[in-house]
Amino acid sequence: MKTIKVNIVTPDGPVCETDANTIIAATETGEIGILPGHVAMVSPLKIGALRLIKGDATEHVAVHGGFLEVRPDVVTVLAQSAEMASTIDIARAQAAAKRAEEVLSAKKGDKVAELELKRAINRINVYETRKK
Ligand code: ATP
């Protein structure tokens, strides 16, 4: 089965360099599946999970915004932050969610806290996929 290279890069350095048969990404315009040979494109990403499917295994990566660049043989993700499910510190994510919820209960609609909460919930959801 054909594979496509995947590079996930953040300002803190590379997060993942691997290859996959299929990549599922949450873009701003919806979820897309990328197979080897996909037409070249660039798309903004939502805060969400990137799924790297190889054979029977699926790796989940928490990605917090940024861009997806697709070329026929390589997919590059440039994100402000990203973590493989296995590197997520769940206690830190839960604490971040609690902090953001406290800010939001005092200041409804606070954009910074809303984004912090979204990132924390995304990390918690991606961490949970490890157990499945
Ligand atoms: P926190 O308030 O816990 O720092 P944050 O959403 O503000 O969370 P980011 O600014 O998105 O954090 O990320 C800063 C750095 O910390 C990045 O390198 C990111 O990968 C890492 N990071 C943040 N939260 C976690 C976590 N729960 N587990 C592992 N790494 C994390």
Structure description:
The chain is α+β, with helices and mostly antiparallel strands and 132 residues long. The chain has two domains: 82 residues, ATP Synthase, domain 1; 43 residues, ATP synthase delta/epsilon subunit, C-terminal domain (Single alpha-helices involved in coiled-coils or other helix-helix interfaces, Up-down Bundle), CATH 1.20.5. Helices cover 27% and strands 45% of the residues. The strands form two sheets. The protein has a five-stranded mixed beta sheet with strand order 2-1-9-8-5, with no helix packed on it. A hairpin with a 2-residue loop joins strand 3 and strand 4. Helix 1 runs antiparallel to helix 2. The two termini are 25 Å apart. The relative contact order is 0.18. Bound molecules: adenosine-5'-triphosphate. Adenosine-5'-triphosphate binds next to helix 1 and helix 2.
What are the main properties of this structure?
10 strands, 132 residues, 2 domains, 5-stranded antiparallel β-sheet, ATP Synthase, domain 1, 5-stranded mixed β-sheet, alpha+beta, Single alpha-helices involved in coiled-coils or other helix-helix interfaces, elongated, binds adenosine-5'-triphosphate
